[in-house]
Design goal:
The chain has 403 residues and is of the alpha+beta class. The protein has two domains: 46-86, no CATH class; 90-395, Kelch-type beta propeller (Neuraminidase, 6 Propeller). Helices cover 16% and strands 39% of the residues. It contains seven helices and 24 strands. The strands form six sheets. Strands 3-2-1-24 form a four-stranded antiparallel sheet, with no helix packed on it. A four-stranded antiparallel sheet has the order 4-5-6-7, with no helix packed on it. Strands 8-9-10-11 form a four-stranded antiparallel sheet, with no helix packed on it. A hairpin with a 2-residue loop joins strand 9 (187-197) and strand 10 (200-212). The longest helix is centred in the first third of the chain and has 17 residues, at 2-18. It is globular. Keywords: Ubl conjugation pathway. It holds the Pfam family F-box. Residues 45-86 form the F-box domain. This is F-box domain-containing protein. Pathway: Protein modification; protein ubiquitination.
């Protein structure tokens, strides 16, 4: 057990220095009587009850709790605490925003405490790497060879490098996704590769490669030639189904420039175009995400007369083969981004969707349950030069998941 928790203890030491200010637990204690209250809690509560109380705190507060005293540090570092923590309500997803176009640096936003934390991401070398997340784990893939992959927990810094995936080298397009089983903690990584057939713009080689963490092996599940369509860089796994966007190579109407295809990871169905689902209207771009095993698309809506110009952003949920519109971004929020391009960053999990423009650090949050739009607390950085770009991804802050 000591070996299993040593890296967690190290993480608590690091994070307790980075997270400042009162957290939701210490705010319950009267400012003028903190030490007395803390001592009385220590004397009265047995370990198992204190574990259960601490397990319901926001994750940033748990890090602070681990630096209160030796007893609390041992509790939040224990294997039993991690088990209790994994069985309470999920932590709200954080959003990591890259604040440099060259360096993989930035801040993570906690929507519960409405705070930004400066954390370092392991493995990743530049912000333009492909990124996918699920249940506390994040997968990074390099943007050059599309062969270097790492799976890590960005909170604990525990990281694992995967074997290079098989298939095409240096594909023209790649789509990355990961799915973690909350019970077994095993995970599946998929990479969809797409490369143009030499001399033929209308035909594209497409292949799907699946990594199983239990066997630690890659398998090429499908190799197919698409005519009139190509793969892209958007994919996600929901309830055992791999979804990814494909794009017309025949120049069709704006309504038919994008499409969605599905691929069962267990049934391994083909050909792909039999599963074709039209996207909900003409989109300038589409972002796929898994929200409670439901496929959600956030898309930029093009103008009727000029489909390449974005007029708004919508959110849809796939029900069977039909799209159910959940919300459209109110105009006042859409204007708040300033120069919102036809392409933007968006990701989500659980009940939260994050949307941001590449041109500014403003971050908008949509709550699927409450159907509520809200600006995140202002990021502690500002735009320093006109061409500075911002992007990001969301992830669940979990302690118990490790690659």
């Amino acid at each position: 057990m000591k070996g299993e928790t040593s890296w967690i203890s190290h993480c608590f030491d690091d994070m307790s220095k980075e997270i400042g200010g009162l957290d939701s637990f210490s705010e319950l204690i009267d400012e003028g009587n903190k030490e007395t209250a803390a001592v009385s809690v220590d004397l009265i509560l047995p370990d198992d009850l204190l574990e259960r109380i601490l397990a319901f705190l926001p994750i940033a507060s748990i890090f602070r709790a681990g630096s209160v005293c030796r007893r609390w540090h041992e509790i939040v570092s224990s294997k039993r605490f991690l088990w209790n923590f994994s069985n309470v309500l999920s932590q709200k997803p954080w959003y990591f925003m890259f604040t440099s176009s060259d360096e993989p640096v930035g801040y993570a936003y906690d929507p519960i405490l409405r705070k930004w934390y400066g954390i370092e991401l392991p493995c990743i070398q530049t912000p333009n790497w492909f990124i996918a997340s699920s249940c506390g784990l994040v997968c990074f893939m390099d943007n050059d060879s599309r062969s270097e992959l790492h799976v890590c927990n960005p909170v604990t810094k525990h990281c694992k490098k995967l074997e290079d995936p098989p298939g095409l080298k240096f594909p023209d397009y790649s789509a990355l996704s990961i799915s973690v089983d909350r019970t077994s903690h095993n995970y599946t990584v998929s990479v969809v590769k797409s490369k143009q057939v030499p001399g033929n713009f209308f035909q594209w080689n497409l292949s799907i490669h699946i990594y199983d963490s239990e066997t630690r092996m890659w398998a090429t599940s499908l190799t197919e030639v698409l005519t009139g369509w190509r793969g892209g860089d958007e994919s996600v796994i929901c309830d055992g189904i791999l979804y990814f966007l494909i794009y017309s190579t025949g120049g069709g109407t704006p309504e038919n420039r994008h499409g969605l295809v599905t691929y069962s990871l267990s049934g391994r169905s083909s050909p792909l175009l039999r599963s074709f689902i039209p996207v909900p209207g003409p989109l300038t771009c589409g972002r796929l995400m898994n929200l409670k095993e439901k496929l959600v698309v956030v898309g930029g809506m093009g103008k009727q007369d000029r489909p390449d110009i974005i007029k708004g952003i919508g959110i849809w949920v796939l029900e069977g083969r039909n799209w159910n519109e959940v919300a459209r971004m109110p105009h006042k929020y859409f204007q708040g981004f300033g120069e919102l391009d036809d392409v933007f960053a968006s990701s989500g999990t659980d009940d939260l969707i994050y949307i941001q423009s590449y041109g500014a650090p403003a971050l908008l949050v949509f709550d699927m349950n409450q159907k509520l739009w809200k600006w995140a607390q202002k990021c502690p950085v500002s735009k320093k030069f006109p061409l500075q770009l911002f992007t990001g991804f969301c992830f669940e802050p979990r302690l118990e998941f490790a690659p």
